[in-house]
Amino acid sequence: MSRTSSTTSGAAKPASTRAKPANKWEQAADWTDGRLGIYSLAKTNLRKIFPDHWSFMLGEICLYTFIIILLTGVYLTLFFKPSMGEVIYQGSYVPLKGIPMSEAYASTVDISFEVRGGLLVRQIHHWAALVFVAAMFVHMMRVFFTGAFRKPREINWVFGFLLLVLGMFDGFFGYSLPDDLLSGTGIRFMEGAVLATPLIGTYVQMFLFGGEFPGHDIVPRFFTIHVLLIPGIMLGLLVAHLILVFYHKHTQWAGPGKTEKNVVGMPLMPVYMAKAGGFFFLVFGLIAAISAIASINPIWAYGPYRPDQVSTDAQPDWYMGFSEGLIRIMPGWEISLWGHTLNLGVAIPLMVLFPMVLVSIAAYPFIEGWITGDKREHHILDRPRNAPVRTALGAAWISLYLVLLAAGGNDLFATHLHLSINSVTYFVRVGMFVIPVLVFIITKRWCLGLQRRDKEKVLHGRETGVIKRLPHGEFVEVHAQLPQKDLHKLTAHEQIEPFELPAETDENGVARKANVIDRTRAKISRGFYGEGSQIPKPTSEEHHEITSGHGHH
Ligand code: HEM
Ligand code: HEM
Question: In a 3-state reduction of DSSP, which class is residue 488?
Answer without folding.
Answer: helix
